[in-house]
Each structure stands twice: as C-alpha cells, then as structure tokens.
C-alpha cells in the first residue's frame, strides 16, 4: 500500500491520497491525487498533471500542490520510473537509470488517460519541472492533445550551454553504453540537495532544507548519480526535440519558463525552441536559480503570475463556463 513521506514541516495537502498503479510495461509506480481545496471557496477549474524532475519525488511538491488547490485545481502526480518510491530499475536503488525516455513518455500518457482523466474532471493542464519537461514536450510534439495548456518550468531541453561539453557528454555516454557500462554511474556529478551553501537549485534556505529533511526521512526514495544509460537516453531525447519540424504536429499551447541563473540546464535554448512554433511562448524569471518552484517567494510570485496569465484564458471556453462545472 502506497503512503506519503511525512515530516512536520511539510504537511500533506488537503484530501491527498497516495496509491500505486501499473506503468505502460507493468512496472509499479507510486502516484498521488489531490482534490481542489473546498475551503478556498473557488469553483473547480480542472486538473493539473504535475511532473517533477530527476531525483525528485511527490512530497517535494506539496507546497506547489497547495498553491494549485487554492486556485481551484485538482492535482494528479506520480514518481517517475526508477525514482522516488516507484519501482527501481537496478538493484542499487541510488542509481538514476533509464535506457529510453520513451518509457517516461508512455507512463505519462497512461497516467493521464487511466488515472488523471478518470479521477478528475477537466480541462487538464500539464505542469512540469526540469527532466519532467523532456518526455512531456516529446509527447506534446507527437500531437497528443489531452491538455488545454502546458507549462514547462526550467525544462531539460539541453544540459550544457557549452557545445563542446555537450558533445563530449553525449559521446562519453554512447561509448560507455557501447562498452557495456550503461548501468555504471556517471562520475563527478555534484549533489546539490544536501548542502545549501553553493547549491545550484534554490536560494531559499527553508525550501532547500525541507527537501533534505524529506530525504533523511525516506532514504529509500533517494537517487543520486545518473547512469551512463540515463545520460545516453537523455541526450537522445533532447536531440529529438531539436529535429527539424519536430513541432509540426504540436496542438497544445506551451509556456516555457526559464530561470535566469540556471546552471543545470541551458536556459538559452528555451527561446530558440519557442521560436519554432507559434504555440510555444517563453517567459524568463530574472534572478532565479534552476528550481523556480522551490525558490524565494519573489521568484515564485513571478512564476505564478506567468502561470495564471497563460493558463486562465486557455481553460475557460468562449461561453465562460468551465468543463469541470458542467
């Protein structure tokens, strides 16, 4: 039976339920569902499908869930394959491993169809962070149209700003996998979630400490270094997003939100991708580090202002009546 990881400083949002479901290939994935906050006094607006990044898990986003609930949204989310409290792909739990981001994409589509859409009324909006944005944007670019809008927060469309470093990382991953080392960890990857000083994730100490305490409370939810298999799969997925005419089948309005001081993904790539489709818009949160949703309040307010301005017009039909109210 699935449960939440509980610490005093991170209460479970109202009505939250944790449960397991079977992914696209039968693997066990942990999920959670949260109804709108009735105490907020707002009419239901629909459902947010919320996707975290690499090494994260559901509980890290409890504050974000509450932000969405008070806006009138239900929230459906899950731990990606191989991380959090979902089934792991290797005997060593701390390794972040995948061989094909198509697995993530298939799990996302199944979760949307079989969990989110069956539990909550629409319209449906996709909200992702970092790695979660990669398979999400691939799925949308395939022409998947279940979402009225998508907001991708600091999406992992490129890992390194330096093209030589990017090319070297891809070549190294291909070589390592070719030599049978796909399950071996990539060396010298800095872990930013354990120490606040010098971290590249957030400038908010309290939010940084909260995730550290969550990891201490549930060591079995942690992953650390990615494997060479993960790096190869990630490189291939990001390259896929840069193929000519990749967004020709895109039907969903997308907002890419970049962090100005992002040191983990190449935020300069975001406006380049946005220029490739009239359906993609771009916003920049000045001064923010990579984890915009875990940043200081001033940066989070800027994000939510961009989110509201983009999403609200796209979930209310011309007649002004929400599908969730029908």
Automatic annotation (TrEMBL):
<dbReference type="InterPro" id="IPR022742">
    <property type="entry name" value="Hydrolase_4"/>
</dbReference>
<dbReference type="InterPro" id="IPR029058">
    <property type="entry name" value="AB_hydrolase_fold"/>
</dbReference>
<dbReference type="Pfam" id="PF12146">
    <property type="entry name" value="Hydrolase_4"/>
</dbReference>
<feature type="domain" description="Serine aminopeptidase S33">
    <location>
        <begin position="43"/>
        <end position="297"/>
    </location>
</feature>
<protein>
    <submittedName>
        <fullName>Lysophospholipase</fullName>
    </submittedName>
</protein>
<dbReference type="InterPro" id="IPR051044">
    <property type="entry name" value="MAG_DAG_Lipase"/>
</dbReference>
């Amino acid at each position: 039976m699935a449960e939440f990881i509980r610490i005093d400083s991170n209460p479970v949002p109202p009505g939250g339920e944790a449960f397991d479901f079977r992914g696209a290939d039968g693997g066990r994935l942990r999920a959670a569902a949260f109804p709108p906050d009735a105490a907020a006094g707002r009419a239901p607006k629909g459902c947010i499908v919320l996707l975290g990044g690499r090494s994260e898990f559901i509980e890290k986003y409890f504050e974000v869930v509450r932000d969405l609930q008070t806006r009138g949204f239900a929230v459906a989310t899950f731990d990606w394959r191989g991380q959090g409290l979902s089934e792991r792909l290797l005997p060593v739990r701390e390794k972040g491993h995948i061989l094909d981001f198509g697995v993530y994409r298939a799990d996302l589509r199944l979760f949307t169809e079989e969990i989110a859409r069956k539990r909550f009324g629409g319209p449906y909006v996709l909200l992702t962070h970092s790695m979660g944005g990669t398979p999400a944007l691939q799925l949308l670019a395939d022409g998947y149209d279940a979402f009225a809008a998508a907001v991708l927060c600091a999406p992992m469309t490129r890992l390194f700003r330096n093209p030589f470093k990017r090319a070297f990382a891809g070549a190294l991953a291909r070589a390592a996998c070719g030599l049978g080392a796909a399950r071996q960890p990539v060396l010298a990857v800095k872990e930013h979630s354990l120490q606040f000083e010098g971290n590249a994730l957030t400038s908010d100490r309290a939010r940084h400490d909260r995730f550290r305490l969550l990891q201490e409370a549930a060591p079995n939810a942690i992953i650390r270094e990615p494997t060479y298999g993960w790096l190869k799969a990630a490189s291939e997925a990001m390259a896929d997003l840069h193929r000519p005419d990749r967004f020709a089948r895109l039907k969903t309005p997308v907002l890419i939100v970049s962090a100005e001081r992002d040191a983990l993904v190449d935020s300069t790539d975001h406006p380049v991708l946005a220029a490739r489709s009239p359906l993609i818009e771009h916003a920049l949160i000045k001064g923010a580090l990579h984890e915009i949703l875990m940043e200081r309040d001033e940066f989070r307010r800027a994000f939510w202002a961009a989110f509201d301005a983009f999403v609200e017009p796209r979930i209310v039909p011309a007649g002004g009546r929400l599908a969730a109210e029908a």
